[in-house]
Amino acid sequence: MNKGRISALTLTRATSYFDIRPSQYHGWICNSLETRSCTSGQYLKAHSHINMCELLGRLALGEMTMGRITLHIFKFQFEFEFYFQFGFQCEFDHDRRQVSSTEELDEEVASYLGKPGGRIDGLPTYKMADVAKHSSAEKRLWVTYKEGVYDITDFVDSHPGGEAILMAVGSALEPFWNLYAVHKTPQVTKLLEQYRIGNLDPAEAKENAEGHDPYHADPSRDPELVPSNKKPFNAEPLPERLIENYITPTEYFYVRNHLPVPVVDLSNYAIEIEGPGIKSTSLTLEELKKMPKHTITATVMCAGNRRSEMSQVKEVKGLYWGPSAIGNATWSGVKLSELLEKIGFDESTNEALHVQFEGLDLTPESNPYGGSIPIEKAVDPKGDVILAYEMNGKPLTRDHGYPVRVIAPGIVGARCVKWLNRIVLSKEESPAFWQRRDYKGFSPNVTAETAKWDEAAAIEELPVISAICVPSKHDHVHVNDDSTVTVRGYAWSGGGRPIIRVDVTSDGGNRWVEAELVEKSDARPGRHWSWTLWEVKVPVTASQNQVELWAKAVDSSYNVQPESFKHIWNIRGVLNNAYHRVPINLVR
Description:
This protein is mostly beta strands.
């Protein structure tokens, strides 16, 4: 690879202020700053409206006057766009060319580097057989993309999906990105280019490009659902629509798919159950329906609900969910505790610690989506774990797991495996990627490179959370005659803990108003699986034209939401339960 083809970006005129904003192009890194004879090896960090002299002082360059600044580039990496009030000059291999805007700079760089995956003259050509030999860290991890061959051994930690990309090693990225389209972004493909080692044989590159769409059989969806990603399909309703009903209509229930929706033929469908100390069993849907039917009302929530707010602190991995990746429904089916008892499970003698679930949704390598729950939850009749075949009184829809899905109330939605195919009792958690290498929380100081996935606990019960659904951010809200604004939303806590209070403020927490809990379950603590809907009138003063509403909930264990996302930030953007903050405009 011809590294260093872009040798420098040279600022020839400057004002005392400039912006550095996060770029849509992740990857290039500023190697150094130069002013006259002084050089710093520190990376340029993201600041907004920073005085140039202050910035130079912070970087200890020793120059308090502006001379010439050269931003050296290497490895085709770039993390920031630079916005200056005046034009700046670029050097491309000593070929000086004047550009006056970042848009022109983008065009120059793109034309110079070419499109990601394009053929690069002078690089060696490999066959797919060569790539297949490099599928382990010991032999290096190779993949192909379009006409390019890449060694991604050092790319894994930078990939938004983390180690999920390991599913593609030794082969083409196209099938992987067809399934995980959320990861196929301009940022990722440009970052990938720095790991380019060669070209793929043209005939094989053409063959890889002629793949089918694995999502062609997905079902149709309600147009009111707002997608955060279309392939795989992930979407949520508008917040105001979400709380119109205590029981969320199926068509407005959020959809969280990791892979294409499987097409299930009931004539060939059966759930396999196995593990030590029980009789291996295979149950068809009709056989399942012959067992006692139970109905529960339970809220299911994605671990990434409200992730878009956490991402405002710092970039996180995952879909940018709003506050509506949650829903409350009735679920009917067979209690897992009764099924396990029927096939011989004896808690007093069985050494199983977990119940693993596998779905019919498959990765390109035919690995199923999977998750697990503790055995104590599974076998407790009061744990109410259901193998559900009905949602809101009707057969499950395909997006929600037809014909059977797991509902583990009070547990994160990631463990409520859809399109259930297999149940395994084991001493170990599910070996699936989503149990072992995803859906875990970390300290704010942990990075993708330092995360110890094997040591972190998998998310099971979720913490207390609330959200303001009406009004929405930046709405123009009519002030009531009594100088209040009406605010409505939901609150929920995992583990069967009921909500006992919701507090809302419009003045930064100087005065809180307790909300009325207008719709809630009357279930006992420990089995309080449903959310609570709330409403409150919050005072505002006559002098205010804008306010920021804050909401926080308290559960029966007096767990309360943290004030800020800053101190609960984590690389996966999960457990997003800080105060919900909604700025609004007041209309009188």
